[in-house]
Amino acid sequence: MSATQATGQVVCVSGLCVTIRGIASLLVIGDRVTLCPLGHQDVLAEVVGFSHDGARLMVFGAVDGIGPGTPATLRTVTGRDRSGLAVHEGWLGRVIDPLGRPLDAAGPIVPGPNMQPLRPSPPGPIERARLGPRMDLGVRVLDVFTTCRVGQRLGLFAGSGVGKSSLMSMLARQAKCDVAVIALVGERGREVREFIEDDLGPEGMARSVVVVATSDSPPLMRREAAYAALSVAEYFRDQDKSVLLLMDSVTRFCLALREIGLSSGEPPATKGYPPSVFAELPRLLERAGPGRRDGNGNAGHITALFTVLVEGGDHDEPVADAVRGILDGHVVMDRRIGEEGRYPAVDVLKSLSRTVPGCLSAEEASLTRLARQCLATHENMADMIRLGAYKPGTDPAVDEAVRVYPALNAMLSQGKHETSTIESGFGALQDALSDNAGALAA
């Protein structure tokens, strides 16, 4: 393919947006242009909109040094070669930024022979494979009460500081998958190295690719981190591998989209989010899941867990509500449970997996139903039990809930480096509900 260059110039810089003229007729949404400010390094920018003044761009770096007259160069390729990532097997064990550049000290990134597109369409609904068998996540409370199938997508809803990162590290280390792709979108810079070295560790890192855009990154970089992580996951999925995708968090991805939309002139709608955010969200989330079937009926899968920051405990805020409607289940973490000392701080009664009916035996389903009933009964009567207002023998269901609650609570707790399987989880649940529950709790 032949390549040429076209050059325009900046005519306006307003907030996060840069307007250029001279090459606007050659551009479409999503094209990338190189800005060359005098005395500063070249900076990459992306077309996010158009106006009567020209093309509106947002930069992948700082706008320092950019002003009227700054050259803007477009490298055009016959057939319009769009942006992508040259993903390679050698990316396993690496930490990269959303543009595919290394952030660790392990040397240059090995490029693959082909470009993986950043924003492809999800597989067609009829072309897709079905969900696979149930999958060991390595976390007892999830394996038992929100049992996950290969290719399923779960949402993890929690406030800040409730233990999302620790739960993600347990999944990355212990889940039964071939590859783990971890996207840290808008994460605190201080926590990235701690997560990689302390939480993920060498064992988890060896089979992982970590994509990082910290909170101080421009909105385009934070948005691109989510797209890049999906592209890496899709590369390994297309090799018929089982991929675990962990994204923290979808909320910060939506905040980046909001900044981009408002800066490009889009009107605010639901709680300040422009309409494009809720159009883009399903396009991103639907890319996870089962892949296309090949001629033999085989397919790779992306089993995904997307975290959602629930600020102020409002589970009906726009992003949380939209994500919950798209995904195949949700896991709710509760600060109150963490304050009581039980980790992971998962609220079993508010969490569910929509695929549970297809992956539990009748005996396992009966055990989880009985456990939920006991937990719900104990929660409803907790204040009366705590105050001593409930008299034992008044209600057999409450008596049973009081009897098994200590063992159930112990069963739901798990250390960060403690391993578990689905079978051992259901065995522990059966023991907790048995006549020996009191002895187990002690």
From TrEMBL:
InterPro entries: AAA+_ATPase, ATPase_a/bsu_AS, ATPase_alpha/beta_chains, ATPase_F1/V1/A1_a/bsu_N, ATPase_F1/V1/A1_a/bsu_nucl-bd, ATPase_T3SS_FliI/YscN, P-loop_NTPase, T3SS_ATPase_C. It catalyses: ATP + H2O + cellular proteinSide 1 = ADP + phosphate + cellular proteinSide 2. The keyword Protein transport applies. Pfam families: ATP-synt_ab, ATP-synt_ab_N, T3SS_ATPase_C. GO terms for biological process: protein secretion by the type III secretion system. It comes from the Bacteria. NCBIfam families: fliI_yscN. This is Flagellum-specific ATP synthase. It comes from Tanticharoenia sakaeratensis NBRC 103193.
